[in-house]
Amino acid sequence: MLEFKLTLDNVDYGELINYLMPHIKWEEMNVPPVLKQLAMSSGAAGAIRNFLKIMPKDKQDELVIYLIEKNKDRIIAAIHRAAQSRGVHVNVADFGVTNQPDVVVR
Q1: pTM here?
Q2: Is the dihedral of CA 33, 14, 39, 51 positive or negative?
Q3: Each residue of 38-61: pLDDT tens digit?
């Protein structure tokens, strides 16, 4: 078994959530009602990007981690389908998402 560790920085959360939209069961998420309404409306991608802009960065981090963790099984299934469609045979056993504080070197 191989274990990969990816560290992502400067992630556009609006684009990430837009990419994950088909894999998020919004009706089961414990998020603000306005976000659910935006996510399930037409033009959801732009609306969510605008919603995220008014949220503090730490709340954006929490939201993205929550959405990914709560929909992990659906995301793993999507990874399997995408890999299989490209002829790659792989089994993603698990993954996790954490928020690491930015390291500032002075």
Answers
A1: 0.81
A2: positive
A3: 888 877 777 888 888 888 988 999
